[in-house]
Amino acid sequence: MSIPTANSFVRRRRSRLGDIALVVATGAATVLVLAVLAIIVIDVVRGGSQRLSWTFLSMAPSEGMTAGGVFPAIFGTVAMVILMTVAVVPAGVATAVYLHEYADAGSRLTRAIRIAVNNLAGVPSIVFGLFGLGFFVRFVGAGVDRAFFGGEKVFGQPALVWAALTMAVLTVPVVIVATEEALRSVPRELREASLALGATKFQTVLNVVLPQATPGILTGTILAISRGAGEVAPILFTGAAYYLPSLNWHPSSQFLHLGYHVYVLATQSPDVDASKPLLYSTVLVLLAVTFVLNFSAFVVRSRMRHRFTGAGT
Amino acid sequence: MEVPLRSSGQGDSLLSAKRRAHERVTAAARVGASNPARRLGKPAPRWHAVAEVAIRIMALSVIAAVLLIFAFVAKEALPLLFSKSIHQEVTLGKMFTAQAWPGYDSAEHIWQPVSEIPKYGIWPLILGTLKVSIVAMLVAVPLGVGAAVYVSQYASRRTREIVKPMIELLAGVPSVVLGFFALMVMASWFQSLLGLESRLNALVAGVALSFAVVPLIFTISEEALGAVPRSYIEASTALGAARWQTIVRVLVPAASPGIAAAVALGLGRAVGETMIVLMASGNAAITSASFVESVRTLSATIAAELAEVVFGGAHYTVLFFLGTVLFVTTFVINFLGDYAIGRMKKRLGVAA
């Protein structure tokens, strides 16, 4: 429209330079973040894959943790995670259902619950460890002993069940957030149709809303399991053992944990160089487990997101 | 009960007809829910009522959990204030002030709980936590926010669908794995690259810590940038601003409360993170300004020392006090972060 002046050329060039600079800077940040992930994965896979074998997965550590495998740690992690899931899923789902289906969104109580959920997610994991020791082990556990075991120390010490419950408190926000997201994606019309047919609110939640929200609950559960398998600080004082001679299912026994086993091998091993290959393979197992879990959570969630597109809301 | 089936919506536009139908459905539903006599079908089993109460109790127990965490951690720390026998070894005042320890020339802050004369100076630990967190934030904020700007503004849909799950995957890496990587690999790289004296130090731990913080900052910032209404961008573009000018002068300022929240929540994570610093920081409680010397953080101190203390003793009590400090600090930081998010949502008119 107007004749380009020198000034406008300068301005346009500057703006193009600015765009290039911003793309390069922010793109570099993105690449760097992805590179970190790639470098960690490559290093762990390269260092850990040689020793990884069926024997490694199925045998106990031996010779001062310089030989053998990680089976007891896998066993203990699975046992702890099962107990944790049994506790965390009902609690998380119930809270999400309350927040989304029952609570009055603006009320003070609802706001307080939301603040509590957010802050629970932000409490440092080591504080959960202290809490587990102070509350579950020393208060609940000692109480159980006094009531049922005549004061004999059975549950009043670090144990599988206390570690699982501590981990459940830590992971409950994950389940709540994922479930609530799923509840939000269930179209309003489904609830209204159910209510119009005469179902009570609870019948609607139980028979209509929750079945539709299953993928979200599943996502939350998987993510919680992934956290539980890798988080170490909360179980340091509530049940994880340095080494155990035998496998034990009993909730009052201690257990080996994959994440804690990595920590032990990396820092407390009597011979760090000799246990290094074992350490790498253990990290590879742990990383593979968390990646598989996180990836499947991602798949479930993206399917859920696509399901209701077009169905309103 | 009066049911206003016809009383609402006398207008004859399509919209109000629709609304009327909708209100009829909800009104009927309300009748069904509250008046058993008019409900169709089988009556609800009794356990439903019990389950509804249980749901309410579960929701309340989340509040209870936060209160219990504080109560039980603080309870174990309480003797530090009131117990005479513990005061013979340590008091709150002694923890925060420099003490003239035998064998030292001047009064100093020293953390040395396991020695002939236990010393509980807390400042070296606070300093260590700060140093590691500062390094982590200096790395994580530019990376996290930068990646968020790129992904939300420049990346193609396809790129976005690859990058976002990858960063979620990074968020899923257990902190003990990051600690392992820092300890076994990064520490050696840094040492040979920078010629450092101590292999494990605040710099290594801080950089490793930033890997745990970046996904958090990225996710929240990206969400905040995405929440800025399109009209802001269109208005800026219409005024002749270049893309980068729109991003730097309009988009980022509009999303700034969200980005501030991302930084706050990231800082909360950095301050409280345990396994990475426990493994990579060297764990020496040194008071110095240098970032390449070993440090000991509050969280790592608890993790490293609690297993070996006497229940109820002075050391035990002090470690729970450190836990209380961590809890309160992160609580305040997170609360401010959530407040910022809430304000941003209100300002941009996004439903919470």
Observed structural traits:
heterodimer; A: 313 residues; mainly alpha; MetI-like fold; 2 domains; two-stranded antiparallel sheet; 74% helix; B: 352 residues; two-stranded antiparallel ribbon; 15 helices; 2 strands; globular; disordered N terminus
**Strand line-up across the major sheet of chain B:** 1-2
Overall mean confidence score, pLDDT of chain A: 88
Seen as an oligomer or otherwise, the chain set is: heterodimer
CATH class of the largest domain in chain A: Mainly Alpha
Characterization of this structure:
The complex is a heterodimer of chains A (313) and B (352). Chain A folds into 2 domains: 1-48; 54-307, MetI-like fold. Helix content of chain A is 74%, strand content 1%. Chain A is built from 10 helices and 2 strands. Chain A has helices at residues 6-48, 54-58, 71-102, 108-122, 125-148, 160-185, 188-196, 201-230, 258-268, 272-307; strands at residues 61-62, 67-68. Chain A has a two-stranded antiparallel ribbon with strand order 1-2. In chain A, helix 7 (188-196) runs antiparallel to helix 8 and helix 9 (258-268) packs antiparallel against helix 10 (272-307). Chain A is globular, with a radius of gyration of 25 Å. The two termini of chain A are 45 Å apart. With 352 residues, chain B is mainly α. Chain B has 15 helices and 2 strands. Chain B has a two-stranded antiparallel ribbon. In chain B, helix 7 packs across helix 9 (202-227), helix 9 (202-227) runs antiparallel to helix 12 and helix 14 runs antiparallel to helix 15 (314-347). The longest helix of chain B has 34 residues, at 314-347. Residues 1-15 and 34-39 of chain B have low confidence and may be disordered. At the A-B interface, helix 1, helix 3, helix 4, helix 5 and helix 6 of A face helix 1, helix 2, helix 6, helix 7 and helix 8 of B.
